[in-house]
Structures are given as C-alpha cells and as structure tokens.
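Service request form, structural biology core

Requester: graduate student, group of Dr. S.
Request type: structure prediction, single chain
Budget code: on file
Notes: please return the result as structure tokens.

Sequence provided:
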Amino acid sequence: MNEGNFSEVSEFIFLGLSIYRPTQHFLFALSTISYATIFLGNFSVVFTVIFDPHLHSPMYFLLANLSFVDFYFCFSTSTVPKLISDLYLGHSIISFQGCIFQMFILHLLGGCEMVLLVAMAWDRYAAICKPLYYMTIMSPRMCIILLIGAWVIGLIHSVAQLAFVVHLPFCGSNEIDSFYCDLPRFIKLACVDNYRMEFLVTADSGLISLSTFFLLIVSYIFILFTVWNQSLGSLSKALSTLSAHISVVILFFGPCIFVYMWPFPTVPVDKFLAILDFMITPILNPVIYTLRNKDMKVAMKRLSNKILNSKIVC
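Core staff response, request fulfilled:
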C-alpha cells in the first residue's frame, strides 16, 4: 500500500475499562474518590514541606517534588480526569493531537520521576554513609541541579520516544483497547511494519526502566552493606528509613517493566497495571512517606494545629 492510500486519522476511540453502564457507574465513583484522595494526599505533602521550616532539607525538597510530579503533572492529572469524564458519558474519543500530547506528558514525567527516585537514593546514601559531609554533598545548588536534570532527562526521553511515532501513517482501525494513549497500542494501529518500531520503544522505555530499577536496588544494597559493616544498630535504622523508598521504587517500576518487557502482553493485565500506576501508586506514595516518617507526621500535626488555632482566633 502506498502512502497516497492512507486515510488521515483525526481521532481515536478508547474501548475503556468496560462497556456495561452499571460497571462504568461503579468505576466512575471509584475513580472520582481515588482522584480526590490523590489530590489531598499529595497536596498535603507539598503544602507541609513548603510551610514547615523544619522540613526545609534536601530529603523533603525531593519528596515534595515527587508528590508534585505524581499529581499536578504526571500520571494522575494527565489520565484520570479524562477517564472520569469518559465513564460518566459512556463513550470516549480523543483527538490525534490530544493522544500525542498525552503520551508526551506521560513519558516526560515518567522519565522525570525516575531521575527523582535516583536523586532520592543518592540523598539517602549521603545522609547514611556520609553524614559529616551531607550538607556539602546535598547543597541547595546540588538539589536544584538534580531537579533541573530530572526535567531535562524526562524531556529528552519523551521527545526521543515520540520522534519514532509522530509521523506514522494510519489507514485502518482507530480503536485503542485502553483508557489512555500508550505507545505500544498506538504503534499497533499504524499501517506499516511495526516490529522494528515496537523494538525501539521497548529498548527506550523498557530497558531504561529496568536498568534504573536495578541501579536503585543495587544502591540500596550498597547502603545497607556499608551500614552493616559499621553497626548492627545503624543497620536496623537504615533499613527502616530505606523501606519506604524501596516500596515506592517497586510500585513505580514494577508496572513499567512488566508492560514494556513482558513478551506475552494481555489487555486485562495491561489495564490493571495502568490503574495501579495512575490511581493506586499516587495514593500510596504519600501514605508510605508520611506514615513511616516521624518528622512528616509531627510536621503535619503541627501545621494542622496552627491552621485550626488561626481559625479559632479569627
């Protein structure tokens, strides 16, 4: 088929999570509650870190930016409101440009979050293994460099991904069996031999996710081994500190690695992993970091008391 026979696709149809209205109504309620919880949880973390001077440290600076990315730009806001609207209406259509933009945002902030998690691992290494040099290593300048680096690397990753697919021709079906635009299913709709394209996407996203995940796990093992050589008591404390970070890393990278690296993908499993990424993980991140962090719990209590007292005075 030559290029002149390709019909221009101006929009895509999401098949969504279910075609049955009662199920859609249930999912609508569940998604709305999840999105509200994501907003409140991540907003609380960002608000507390900004307004509590006791938390003005590199560790909480990076944590606040992780929460900021989780909700305000990344997975949740780029997909869940659209999902809620589609479930309410009972059908879903997205423009070609909207689909490209959604994929751009997802990979931009996905790459950014990967780098932020690496930066947080580096911060924990400096705090646990080099405590005397911690403020020198994690200076305000270094924190800003890490943050800018996260956004730049995310941008490069996203642009590199979309450069492969933005000019693909489409001539057949425009139905995506999902509730958001993702690269593997987007490529499958193209009227070209997409094996090489799928391989490039897997190499860029899957291998980056896998290598970053192993880099983080190795760094945590190195930290624990270093502390173990120093003191068994310090090992228990370090393990308690790192367990929250390890939990978040597994929650974030697990679905990414499975979606891009598993050789036998299935639609139901991919949809479940997408829900885990877009609705469950952004809820659990602030819970993990606050419930297992004494300073965060004390700061939130202190800030809430201050707000309540100011209202009483007024």
